[in-house]
Amino acid sequence: MSLPLLQTDLSGFSVTRGKVRDVYDLGDNLLLVSTDRISAFDWVLPTGIPDKGRVLTQLSNFWFNHLKIPNHLLETDVEAMDLPVGTDLESLAGRTILVRKTEVVPIECVVRGFLSGSAWQEYCDTGKVCGIELPTGLQESSRFPSMIFSPATKAEQGDHDENITFSQMCERVGHELADKLRHMSIETYQQGAAHAHEQGIIVADTKFEFGVVDGEVILIDEVLTPDSSRFWPADLYEPGHAQPSFDKQYVRDWLTNCGWDKNSTPPELPEEVVARTREKYIEAYNLITGETFAWK
Fold first, then answer.
1. Within this chain, do residues 109 and 86 fall inside the same structural domain, yes or no?
2. What is the pLDDT, as a whole number, of residue 124?
3. What pLDDT score does 249 carry?
4. Residue 26 within any structural domain of the chain
5. Total domains present in the chain
6. Per residue in 72-131, pLDDT tens?
7. For position 44, which CATH number holds?
8. Calpha distance 136→139 (Å, rounded)
9. Same-domain check for residues 87 and 114
10. pLDDT at 296
11. Do the beta carbons of residue 146 and residue 173 sit within 8 Å?
């Protein structure tokens, strides 16, 4: 099923299209629309994952209400957003939120509880993660002795941001703001990871984004979703190798093994891969929220 763009008429507003999200500027506020697009290896894939945008939006909304941290969320009901007459509300419903406009802090605030992904590769190469010296002998997927805050610069294009040290972050945004963001990120991760673990999911790592409005630092973008986090089933956790996950790793694995060179236009995803990926996203939602995802 090809879903490169969400088809809805909001042509009267300036729009910025990201890899998977469309952002409409409404003046004082922003309209964030999570599409069913999926990206991997710096490419937006030609095949969408049905309901992915709604799953991620509804899961973020759950966290915005559950976490004890100020955030940008204003409205989740499209009928209450005062959108122009004729707007296709049905296509926007469930995947759209109205949020406060902020001055975005240009840093990805990553918190890691377990050694995986790019952190595992860096540890193998240097014995460190983002400049932080770690004990020798750690295995892939090992729990860190203590959580690691590993900031990254926000990439203009593609999936991959550049990891930086905390000192480099201080140089970019100032020590006071950097220290505040580190504290807020770790505290938010601890809250979210504790709840997720009670529901059977390990949050191995996650990234947060923050913005400043009226002098207040608030949480923005999406929160603790399979797109912004590494979710593992707790009952299958076993250090020493990569873990099964609830994120788009299933798609990455198929792309890696299908013969695609990662430099040319990516292939369409098979129906089986699309269906399985959709199932994993929905399973994560159901476990974390305690509700059953359903949409007409």
1. no
2. 96
3. 81
4. yes
5. 2
6. 999 999 999 988 888 889 999 999 999 999 999 999 999 999 999 889 999 999 999 888
7. 3.30.200.20
8. 9
9. no
10. 62
11. no
Place of tokens 């099923």: 1
**How far is CA 148 from each of CA 131, 186, 219, rounded to the nearest angstrom?**
11, 8, 19
Among 36, 70, 101, identify where a domain stops: 101
Instruction: Kindly state whether residues 220 and 120 are assigned to the same domain.
Output: yes
Task: Give 116-171 pLDDT, tens digit per residue.
Answer: 988 999 999 999 988 889 999 999 999 999 999 999 997 654 445 788 899 999 99
Altogether, the residues listed in the chain come to a count of 296
- For residue 51, give both structure tokens: 């309901």
Residues forming a β-bridge with 43: 40
Query: Is residue 261 one of the residues assigned to a domain?
Result: no
CA angle 245, 285, 197 (to 5 degrees): 65
Q: Are residues 47 and 116 in the same domain?
A: no
CB proximity list for 115: less than 8 A, separation 6 or greater: 123, 129, 134, 138, 139, 140, 141, 142, 143, 144
What is the per-residue pLDDT across 190-204, written as a single tens digit (0 to 9) for each?
999 999 999 999 999
**Domain of 130?**
103-245
| Residues 115 and 212 reside in one and the same domain | yes
Residue from 99, 47, 44, 106 nearest 75 by CA: 99
Instruction: Please state the φ and ψ torsions of residue 24, each to the nearest 5 degrees.
Output: -105, 130
Supply the pLDDT for residue 155: 62
Would you say residue 66 lies in a domain?
Answer: yes
